[in-house]
Write a structure and sequence with these properties.
2 copies of one chain form a homodimer.
Chain A (H helix, E strand, L loop, with lengths): L22 H21 L3 H5 L2 E8 L6 E2 L1 H14 L4 E15 L2 E13 L7 E13 L5 E10 L6
Parallel strand pairs in A: 1-6
Antiparallel strand pairs in A: 1-2, 3-4, 4-5, 5-6
Chain lengths: 159, 159
């Protein structure tokens, strides 16, 4: 459990008012909580909850796909994916994130994920694993949002 | 040329001494220069020059590959790749990077790349396109280094 708490103590902290030294651990706790929200929204295939985690100018970089630029384009993409998955159910979505670094209102972490999706009509379930690199930003309302997300597939089993 | 100069003016700049307001544009210029170094080192398949651009605790996230954690592991990986490509020549490597954001000594950008590799023995050339998400950090020596890199394949031609 230690290795995800890799904290980059930022230079400008020395210029912050007294009491602000707790800001970085708070940020890490907030991001851990953000990750649980991301995990839950994905597992429930809840498009609205997922979109709520994105910044307005967020960028999603998915394999074999043009860069998806901005929340409106991400909404369209998610909506198309959900339509193509009609009747499917995500029976598992687990995410583990590592090496959170925080610099003022920006943060980064990388994650591994494991998903199992069941389809209607007896089609075989999809059991996939991948990893993600995330760049987050704390918005004016204080909540962390996804600014950049990239995904690629995990190593083959036993690889 | 405008869209890569998306600058996040960081909150702690207000606490910086007079004259430091030029720090963010300087950082962007430095990162543009860093990108040219990255492009040249990759095109020349120059492992030493490539490794020099990595932070000691850098993390490389490649498709179908376990996360590569730390510069020593990245050196081993690059060395293995170069050995497997013996006699090959990268005749093209072009990279375009977008949306540089800077927060103190951390930065992020995403890039597209196009590479053409020629092999000995008349094997057909590899012509591939991908995209990258990079998280950079300015080290104590003032130079930007790669802290996190993820890559995945571009959309299919015409896609």
């Amino acid at each position: 459990m230690q290795n995800w708490i890799f904290l980059q103590l930022i230079i400008c902290m020395v210029a912050l008012p007294t009491g602000a030294n707790s800001a970085v651990p708070d940020a890490v706790r907030e991001i851990v909580s953000f990750n649980r929200s991301f995990e839950n929204a994905t597992r429930k295939m809840d498009t609205d909850a997922t979109l709520a985690l994105w910044a307005a100018d967020g960028i999603s970089l998915l394999p074999s796909t043009k860069p998806i630029l901005g929340k409106a384009a991400i909404a369209t993409f998610l909506s198309d994916v959900m339509a193509s998955l009609k009747g499917a159910q995500m029976v598992k979505f687990e995410m583990a994130c590592f090496d959170i670094v925080v610099s003022a209102d920006w943060a980064s972490e990388w994650c591994t994920e494991h998903q199992v999706v069941q389809f209607p009509d007896g089609k075989p379930a999809f059991d996939g694993r991948g990893k993600m690199l995330l760049v987050l930003r704390r918005g004016t309302q204080g909540a962390w949002r996804i600014e950049r997300e990239m995904w690629n597939q995990a190593e083959p089993p036993g690889g």
